[in-house]
Amino acid sequence: TGAITLDPGYKNSGSCKSDITFLDGEEGILRYRGYAIEDLAEKADFLEVSYLVIFGELPTKEQLEQFENDIRKYTLVNEEMKNIIDGFPKTAHPMGVLSSLTSALTAFNPKVVNVENEKEMYEAVCKTMAKFLVIATWTYRKMMGYPLNYYDNTKGYVENFMHLMFELPTGPYKQNQVVIDALDKLFILHADHEQNCSTSTVRIVGSSHAGLFASISAGVSALWGPLHGGANQAVLEMLEDIQKDGGDADKYLAKAKDKDDPFRLMGFGHRVYKNFDPRAKIIKKAADEVLATLGVNDPILQIAKKLEESALVDEYFVSRKLYPNVDFYSGIIYRALGIPTDMFTVLFAIGRLPGWIAQWKEMRVNKEPIGRPRQVYTGHPLRDFVAMDKR
Ligand code: CMC
After folding, report:
1. Is 327 in contact with 229 (CB distance < 8 Å)?
2. pLDDT tens digits for 170-180?
3. What is the ipTM of this complex?
4. Catalytic: 93?
5. NCBIfam families given for it (predicted)?
């Protein structure tokens, strides 16, 4: 056997060829299918971008309408899924519930497991886009003890997110266009990010020919961790902790720099962006707009601003190229929109869904081999077996 190259965390190893997302971490560039993230966030909507990411081209008006209608065909979720959600305690974290429910979808949609041709692939894509949104919001309804809601086929996709989350039998939920637009933008900014931890997970699980739902369920679990998508929740919790502790941002900056303290500044640093995170720039602007329009005056924001200002001129952060990432600001918007902290990472998952689908599809279409990294063994050499009474 040839020598094995060791690369913990795959910092320098490419795992696949991909046509989906271009990322230049030094220059702070992010493009989906060749289109700049700045343009897409400004000029397109989330379903349009989902279509682009999954199928490779911006849709025509007709294609987009067809896509939206085809998604609507599958928005009913099997009633028996409710038995599964019933079994969870109200205190269960929504990401754990979401991962389980996504996996359970396989049992009710066995066709999505064995995608054999383009038509089945298209159906699988639409089913996943439809049902994942519904069950993602069900995790919130469960947590709140509210009756589960159904997709309203007269409304758009992002509008439906708000409807599914907040509409109650006691009265209609009043849609707010500022909120819809902000969410739309956030979902677009999260839609894909090449071979990050959850996407690599989706591809490697899928490479064994596990189905789409099973692969995405694994992606949800990977996203949950605080070093990945869970950071948006962790950022808000950190800001709340700082507030409770008297609001001294510099004290926490010092903790983050202290190598004997495991504390890290949540929402700072990125594996590939070493200059700035282009998504963070767009979100920061959106956050300012949303807060101004909704008239939110949140003391947590002052702490966030102070942390950001101090870190950006601090030698420790500057020399290590640690800048605020997408998760630093997204939580601030979600909070302003009235979304509970435990749901933040679920929103990340809804946004990332088209990316996971596109990457899974690309991996299957390209007939990629099963993912199977090697290792460098560091354990014992051969040893003589020791009988139980001699140990
Ligand atoms: N606070 C304090 N120090 C940090 C931080 C931080 N947030 N991030 C990195 N460092 C230090 C780290 O201690 C190390 O220092 P030294 O060279 O002295 O040992 C140096 O910077 C390099 O860090 P690393 O851990 O080797 O970098 P990585 O590429 O393995 O990790 C990261 C990237 C995003 C996991 C990390 O920066 C981090 O833990 N950040 C906080 C969590 C976070 O915000 N995650 C969201 C990432 S963006 C969206 C997403 O993926 O979901």
Report:
1. yes
2. 987 888 888 89
3. 0.96
4. no
5. cit_synth_I, PRK05614.1
